[in-house]
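Thread: Newbie trying to understand structure tokens

Hi all, I'm a second-year student working on a class project, and my supervisor (Dr. K.) asked me to get a predicted structure for one chain before our next meeting. I've only ever worked with sequences, so writing a 3D structure as a token string is new to me. If someone could post the tokens and maybe explain what I'm looking at, I'd be very grateful. Here's the chain:
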Amino acid sequence: MLRAAVLSAAVSATTALDWKQLPNAPWGARSDACGGVFNGTIVQAGGHANNTYYNDVWISKDAGESWEMAVEHAPWTPRSYHSCVILPNDRLMLVAGHGGDSWYADVWVTAPGDVSKWTLVNGNASFPKRAAGSLQYQESTGKLFYMGGSNGLLPPAGFGTTIYNDVWSSADEGATWSLVTEKAQWDKREGFSGQSSGNAIVIGGKTLSIIGGEKGYLPTGFFGDVWTSEDGANWTEQVKTAEWAGISGGSIWDIKGRSGHIVAQSEGTLWLAGGYLGRNDVWCSKTSSLGAKWVNVDKKSSWAGRYDHLLAVVGSKLVLFGGEDSAAGTGGPYYNDVWSADITAFECA
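---
Reply by user tm_fold:
Sure, no problem. This is what the structure looks like when written as tokens:
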């Protein structure tokens, strides 16, 4: 199994996370769902396992200990690689994604605090149909930003796929969208910032982010950079190659990027977990600056290596669930296990 690079000042074993396995979730094993957390409630929407696509919505009110189905069949088409974000008044927005050979550009939002009720905001948004883009909500301006993604399989599996580095914004909660820039400074990519799960990382309600991702399914197509922007048009490269990007060994697999990782945010700390090629390491970084170094918290966690899972912060708990570890994006294994770690006394040094 591939390992993340070892920092010169590694975290001691006493500060590593102590993962506890909770009961398996009642929903079918899957990856590429999206979701969020509002008022301490975890939400999971959609996802897929091989060629089975879901449009069910599940919630957990006790940090992953138990789950209940909010709706078996939401009004949006079953899909994966869609993006979600929490809006004011405890609403979940869902954008785009794909199911089988279909790609989408629709926008949906739930009723306040009720993820069983969905309203179609825009059935065909201005941005081209796509999946695995990044949806981010900028609290300071009330704007939504949707960026990146692709409309097909990536190289070497796919041909004729368009990979995006455009940025679109909406000032009316997804009803209309305008093009901010057709070509951002960062390279075209998908699956960045943990966006397969919709965990948008916006620092201080203001700073948009790009964290890793991929332009192809081979490790040579992975990114290890970190970018930030205040307006979606002007981007700054904070880190060219983050500490979590590479592995040791000096072989052709000495990759300089990561895909399928998931990023979550607690008070003052970013958490990055897992990734393609069986990774089950965990990293943290201070949110005071996305240019800060990343610290390797767990070189090898208790949970099986995976990608395109979900990672949520609920109070003092870091909760990880779902995902897959397929070698070529199909075949599995897919997971419905749930893991929790207490981060109450943890400080990312």
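A couple of things are worth pointing out once you decode it. The chain has one domain: 13-342. The chain is about 0% helix and 40% strand. Feel free to ask follow-ups in this thread.
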